[in-house]
Amino acid sequence: MTRRQLLLASLDGHRETVFAFGHEDVLGTSLDMQFAADSAADAEVAEAMVLAEIDRLRGVLSTWDPGSEASRWLKLRNEAIVVSEDLAAVLRAYDTWRERTGGAVDPAVGAATALWEGASREPDAAMRATAAAAIAQRHWELDGRVATRRGTTPMVFASLAKGYVLDRAVEAAMAGPVRGALINIGGDLVVRGELRPRIDVRSPEEGTAARIAVADMAVATSGDYRRGYEIGGRRYSHLLDPRTAAPATGVRSATVMARDAVTAGALATALAVMDPAEGQRLGDSIAGTEYLLLAANGRPILSRGWGALAQAPPADGMELAVEFEIARVDGQRYRRPYISVWIEDKDKFPLRTLAFWVEKSRWWPDLKSWYRGDRMRAMAEGTEITATVASATRAPGKYTVKWDGKDSQGKPVKPGRYAVCIEAAREHGTYQLIRHEMEFNGTAQSVPLKGNVEIAAANLAYRKAAR
After folding, report:
1. DSSP string, 99-146
2. Residue 278 CB burial class (10 angstroms; 0-12, 13-18, ≥19)
3. What pLDDT shows up at residue 296?
4. Nearest CA to 289 among 269, 305, 270, 275?
């Protein structure tokens, strides 16, 4: 795994400092951590504790690692052996959620995936029924920690194992010298202690479906994010229902907030393959959970308490989504670019910083246009915001940041003409700046912008804010 960086940012209304760390290639995805701590040294202790716990559990639960305890146990047949408490806990979780969801959560769903991946024609009803029957078999028997593998259907421990790792990782962090922790593995996350982050829920169209406040909860999302199977010119969702071995058709994505990551992951998986009405009944039956479903027709379906989690939309009901793609640049000396996105008035005075993705403070001046403007703003307003807006650099890919029409002090700006600026600077690379002026007067518009070496493409979408 590779470590990305350390950053500092003040917590809103709190005296603690937030330290953030990022790593790649952790459980096959990215790992992001934030800690509320008194010092960088304390945060680094928590980081090390989390990494050690994840490494330990990978050696137990990973079904992609042939040497893990889970992989070795799955090769056995009809042999009762004592397994670790961690493996037993994940097996119990699958038993529980397989029953509670009527089979919508099952570690043998790969039998359905094998039907659809690379298929030249749509699997017929008989093929789907055969796969569904294999998935429906009893996969093991569990008595305490004594586990007996039954059947031959291949298993993959995915969402529930990931949730279990998240829950244990955040426990490890909170056992260290920190007051709050956020652990994010591949988009699913857990928050504990004194952190109160605002989380953007991704939509299948690459935008933001909702913005929610999270405290002492876990969040998981399962969705149809431009992935799927192309067969005979027709697209099918990659979300497969284990009960039918057929693609899900009723829901594009499901986001669940629950008290623990195992519950959040199980429900997000189930609600993504169930039809909306069935998913609502299940979600409403689980105490302490909230959900947001995006139906196939784009209609949002909310749990009763979801509205209380959502952040208020802008006063005029409009927002600007700055959508851009960090280019992938080949080369051995490639470094992730530093990125800043901000709003200027007609006098080129910076009103609001939307993104400031950069390493330690010595690199801040590399984003020279943003930095020069912010020094001017700091002298005019008498406030420093640099530490509170700094965030980790991002890997190549598509991103969206939003402006709610307010300045850096939280006051709404007047309708008029403002400039949107996207700046990129890369070590051993190039410096690029995109600046575009547009009218903000309540009339929706979408403006594509020409890309460059560092920013492959960008688009400005001024539209009604999601509620």
Report:
1. HHTTTSS-TTTHHHHHHHTT-SS---HHHHHHHHHHHHS--EEEETTE
2. middle
3. 87
4. 305
Rounded Cα–Cα distance for residues 284 and 306 (Å):
12
Domains of the chain: 2-62+160-231+239-309 (3.10.520.10), 69-157 (1.10.3980.10), 318-464 (2.60.40)
Alpha helices in 151-275 (DSSP H): 159-174, 261-273
**Under-70 pLDDT residues of the chain:** 1-16, 202-209, 225-226, 311-316, 331-334, 359-360, 382-388, 466-467
- pLDDT score of 6: 42
Q: Taking the model in full, what pTM does it have? A: 0.71
Burial of 273 (0-12, 13-18, 19+ CB in 10 A): buried
> In the structure encoding, which two tokens stand for residue 109, read together?
């769903």
Handedness of CA 280, 286, 290, 291 (dihedral sign): negative
Range 42-68 burial, b when 16+ CB lie within 10 A, else e: bbbbbbebbbebbeebbebbbbeeeeb
pLDDT digits (tens, 9 = 90+) for 233-243: 888 888 999 99
